[in-house]
Design a protein that fits this description.
Layout (H helix, E strand, L loop, with lengths): L3 H24 L11 H17 L3 H21 L10 H32 L4 H13 L4 H9 L8 H18 L3 H14 L6 H20 L6 H31 L2 H17 L8 H9 L13 H7 L1 H18 L2 H13 L6 H32 L1
């Protein structure tokens, strides 16, 4: 029987599925010639034509449906598991979490100061300098931010003031960078762990979610109550799902033409790069997108990859990571950490590098286990001294 948490998981999953999978299909049948007024909208038309051709074959759509339905039921099964025999490790866990959170907080404050100084020098013209902001601040490793997104909601009940400060700093960082993703991630992880779900406050959650989705547009354009402004919001929002969806098509097309030997080599190169920091060239979905879809009439930008596409390309690594991450979660034996990591990871099924994020969570879990071992040893030493 579905409980309130199950309904919440199902709703989030369904909304993401509709936005990233169904929306491009629906949009490909809209007559965009009626709303085209610049090259940006022309690009949308070209990409939607590609999507429509793919969907005419049906196989691609059936594969996507099967994959996400399968993952959805596994998600419900995992996130609704409650271990009745969880040992009370709050003292050790909270100390280990704070040991990781505080250094990450200092790094985030440094990032916020840097981006504020840069934006203020540009007179806060965010919509004009958005691309520069991306390449200067967003297109780099943000491990400390991801750690805060996962760990801060876990300590919310025991260290509420610190958590709220971190939330506000992430919110400020997102506003200045016009990046919605960090806010979206921490919002979802927080409500999964700390929000009491009811049918009444679900309307409030949907309203906040809508504000997050429209945040970039609301900050970039002067609000006008007319049809043109509606089309701006619509196109600026829908293009994200189209960009991400293109990476799914790219991955399928790539796998049709790669040999099994090269496929295994790519997996080996990827895991050695991310574990041993070698410098092998590996598959880049964004670059492949340019190869498959860039023409003289279509000057594509570099887009985000989708979790689905990275799982297809690195499927052997995906199997290994999932089992190893589950094993480490069992060793940590804390339901809050398990749910926070699972929620964070599952959101990358739709946008982002799922395999890379999963490997990051494996490293984070190993680090937590080491810190837990250290805190226990230190406590044992204190008892001996006393």
């Amino acid at each position: 029987m579905l409980n309130k948490n199950s309904i919440l998981y199902a709703s989030i999953f369904l909304l993401l599925f509709l936005f990233y999978i169904v929306t491009p299909l629906f949009a490909s049948f809209i007559d965009y010639k009626m709303v085209v007024n610049d090259s940006y909208n022309t690009e949308i038309i070209i990409l939607l034509e590609k999507i429509k051709i793919i969907f005419d074959e049906y196989f691609f759509f059936i594969l996507l449906i099967f994959f996400y339905v399968f993952i959805f039921f596994i998600t419900l099964k995992i996130l609704n598991v409650e271990n009745k025999n969880i040992e009370n490790k709050n003292i050790h866990i909270n100390l280990a979490l704070l040991t990781l959170i505080l250094p990450c907080l200092f790094l985030l404050i440094r990032d916020l100061i840097e981006i504020y100084l840069y934006v203020s020098d540009q007179n806060f013209k965010l919509s004009i300098i958005r691309d520069d902001i991306y390449y200067k601040f967003l297109d780099r490793r943000k491990t400390h931010i991801n750690m805060l997104i996962i760990l801060t909601p876990i300590i919310y009940n025991s260290h509420r003031k610190l958590s709220i400060i971190i939330y506000l700093i992430i919110l400020s960082y997102s506003f200045l960078s016009l990046s919605r993703y960090e806010i979206f991630l921490i919002f979802i992880v927080h409500i999964i762990l700390n929000f009491k779900i009811s049918y009444k406050n679900s309307i409030f959650l949907i309203f906040i979610l809508l504000l997050i989705i429209l945040m970039r547009n609301l900050l970039s354009y002067e609000f006008k109550l007319n049809l043109d402004y509606f089309f701006i919001l619509f196109n600026q929002t829908i293009i994200e799902s189209i960009h991400v969806f293109i990476s799914n098509i790219t991955a399928i097309e790539y796998l049709k033409n790669i040999s099994f030997t090269n496929y295994l080599n790519e997996n080996i190169y990827f895991i050695t790069n991310n574990l041993f920091y070698t410098k092998f060239d590996t598959i880049n979905i964004s670059e492949l997108t340019l190869l498959y879809y860039q023409t003289d009439l279509n000057h594509l930008q570099v887009y985000s990859s989708s979790g689905f596409s990275t799982i297809l390309i690195y499927f052997p690594i995906f199997i290994f990571e999932i089992f190893f991450l589950y094993f480490l979660s069992y060793k940590i034996n804390d339901e809050r950490i398990f749910k926070a990591q699972s929620t964070f990871l599952l959101l990358f099924l739709f946008r982002g590098h799922f395999i890379q994020v999963c490997l990051f969570l494996v490293k984070l879990s190993l680090l937590l286990l080491i810190l837990l071992w250290i805190t226990k040893k230190l406590q044992m030493l204190n008892f001996k001294v006393d």
